[in-house]
Design goal:
The complex is a heterodimer of chains A (about 120) and B (about 120). Chain A has about 120 residues and is mainly beta. Chain A is built from no helices and eleven strands. Chain B has about 120 residues and is mainly beta. Chain B is globular and about 40 Å long. Classes of the chains: A mainly beta (about 120), B mainly beta (about 120). At the A-B interface, β4, β5, β9 and β10 of A face β5 and β10 of B.
Chain lengths: ~120, ~120
């Protein structure tokens, strides 16, 4: 089955600095890679995603890159703000024969943005 | 859109009791997922349904856990009998899955379950 590894487990940055979270996946059939942000006591919320036919995607201060050959994908947050503090999860999805899709999550990165 | 709706939001019960968690997916979504989240194990996929049919229940920890999806707008996750180690936040998520195209999964607010 799919295995997703995520690093680092904790990340502390100064406000205004950039933050980078990296993930690797094992199954070359994975074709969709969402990133979720989870604030304390709340549900995971999708913040950005990328499909396997794209190498990079940006949305304001957030960008995601994908290297299919190396099976790496990364989340980049620029000009970090205190409200970016949360746990971030990467995930890899592949479509199953017979219908449906299977999502495997990374173990999460606790991001803390300090003033 | 109301999003994925879960109930109850919080459940506290004594070990040995039956617990039923409920989920209403986003209208039009045909895939539904049950997850469990703990500090130790992170987010674990328990089971998921596609077009109301269970596709993969390999994540269900024990026979004490069961899930049903009688129709496209409702699913339950049941634990009987419950044990203290079942204490966790249980999330339901739904997505639209069509052919080779994946769409994002949207999560409900979760049920925080405490077994005493």
């Amino acid at each position: 089955g799919e295995n997703v590894e995520q690093h680092p487990s904790t990340l502390s940055v100064q406000e205004g600095d950039s933050a980078v979270i990296k993930c690797t996946y094992s199954d070359s059939a994975s074709n969709y890679f969402p990133w979720y942000k989870q604030e304390l006591g709340k549900r995971p919320q999708l913040i950005i995603d990328i499909r396997s036919n794209v190498g990079e995607k940006k949305d304001q201060r957030i960008a995601v890159t994908l290297n299919k050959t190396a099976k790496h994908f990364s989340l980049h947050i620029t000009e970090t703000q205190p409200e970016d503090s949360a746990v971030y999860f990467c995930a890899a999805i592949y479509v199953l024969t017979g219908g449906g899709n299977k999502l495997t999550f990374g173990t999460g990165t606790q991001l803390k943005v300090e003033l | 859109d109301a999003g994925v709706i879960q109930s109850p939001r919080h459940e506290v019960t004594e070990m040995g009791q039956e617990v039923t968690l409920r989920c209403k997916p986003i209208s039009g979504h045909n895939s539904l997922f049950w997850y469990r989240q703990t500090m130790m194990r992170g987010l674990e996929l328990l089971i998921y349904f596609n077009n109301n049919v269970p596709i993969d229940d390999s994540g269900m920890p024990e026979d004490r856990f069961s899930a049903k999806m009688p129709n496209a707008s409702f699913s339950t996750l049941k634990i009987q009998p419950s044990e203290p180690r079942d204490s966790a936040v249980y999330f339901c998520a739904s997505s639209l899955s069509s052919g080779l195209t994946n769409q994002p999964q949207h999560f409900g607010d979760g049920t925080r379950l405490s077994i005493l």
